[in-house]
Amino acid sequence: MxxxxxxxxxxxxxxxxxxGDENGAQRxxxxxxxxxxxxxLADLLSDLPLEVERDAAGNDWYTLRGETERAVLLGxxxxxxxxxxxxxxxxxxxxxxEALRRIAGxxxxxxxxxxxxxxxxxxxxxxxxxxxxxxxGGSMADQEELRRLTDREGVSLPDAVGAFGVExxxxxxxxxxxxxxxAYLELHIEQGPVLxxxxxxxxxxxxxxxxxxxxxxxxxxxxxxxxxxxxERRDALAGAAKLALAIRDIARETGGxxxxxxxxxxxxxxxxxxxxxxxxxxxxxxxxxAAALASMLARAQELSRGFAEEERIDVAWERLWNIQPILFxxxxxxxxxxxxxxxxxxxxxxxxxxxxxxAEVARAGVPTVMMFVQSLRGLSHTRLEDTREEHxxxxxxxxDRLAAKTIAxxxxx
Length: 413
What we know:
By secondary structure, the chain is α/β, with parallel strands linked by helices. The chain folds into two domains: 293 residues, Zn peptidases (Aminopeptidase, 3-Layer(aba) Sandwich); 114 residues, Alpha-Beta Plaits (2-Layer Sandwich), CATH 3.30.70.360. The chain is 37% helix and 23% strand. Strands 3, 4, 5, 6, 7, 8, 13, 14 and 15 form a nine-stranded mixed β-sheet that branches. The longest helix has 24 residues. It is globular. 50% of the residues are buried.
């Protein structure tokens, strides 16, 4: 059964019609739209000789048994952010499915090959990314924090995942899925401008940024907007605004690709006739170097205390999630370079700023590599996200070539 990269592009377009609207993709994890996409994927693979399983964390596994139990994993995620793009996550899964179809068509592979659709990579509903892969990787140590998370409607994370048959207390049982894993491969759109700026379709990924993600709560005093003089105000939003501007300087001063983002501020009472009493601010900081990342966080916290004093308000920090920088496997990076060069003529090595399930698999000790395909204008997490069809087809071919090389490497080890 020959590889058909054009089929993947057609499937991506079909999925866009099935689970998107005029605002973009709507496959937010733990929703009915997400479930519809996963059922569609299962139907797509139903004609192949695969063992299908959903683990304790909600990850879906499609296993093609080989001559040995040692397994090469191909992975991605079907969930999206609200109003997301047509490629983020689902390209990984569908390209992996096409490679799996080609491998199955050639008979029993030398090693077992498994496709995984990770549950809730994005963390869009509860602010906790990499749910399924962190459970499988064994790093989900913050279950008490997870129990306290709620969405905008007040639904708790345990209740939301429970509606899909996932018990938070048992999620770590998914770790057993990696017991025979010998390698993990993941294709993804770049979500940035580097490959496009170099006029290159594909790149091999060196590793992922470390991340610190926090909720910063500023507390002042509500007061009438018309009768409270400016000098008498204890405006919680003022602290959040100052920090939002200050973290830009922190990133610039740190260098090395550092990025800091104030991703949202929720104000209460949230009416135009009142000074803001509380402002909940979401902060995200990323860097490839662990020491630099720690320094960025310490500097932001130090500045926040100064801003709170200036505005006569209080500030409190609550960690939502963090991960250390993760470097990928040198041997697999080399094989990825080879596969890309054979398909596209030239490869480029680059780091990943966004989070990916691959980081959780890598820090669990499984040799891992990612491949990036160019993103037009560097846009992602928006309906404007796009990649040229010829580059999408090249990425499917290159992932398949990488899978073949990795299977041979694992079989020979």
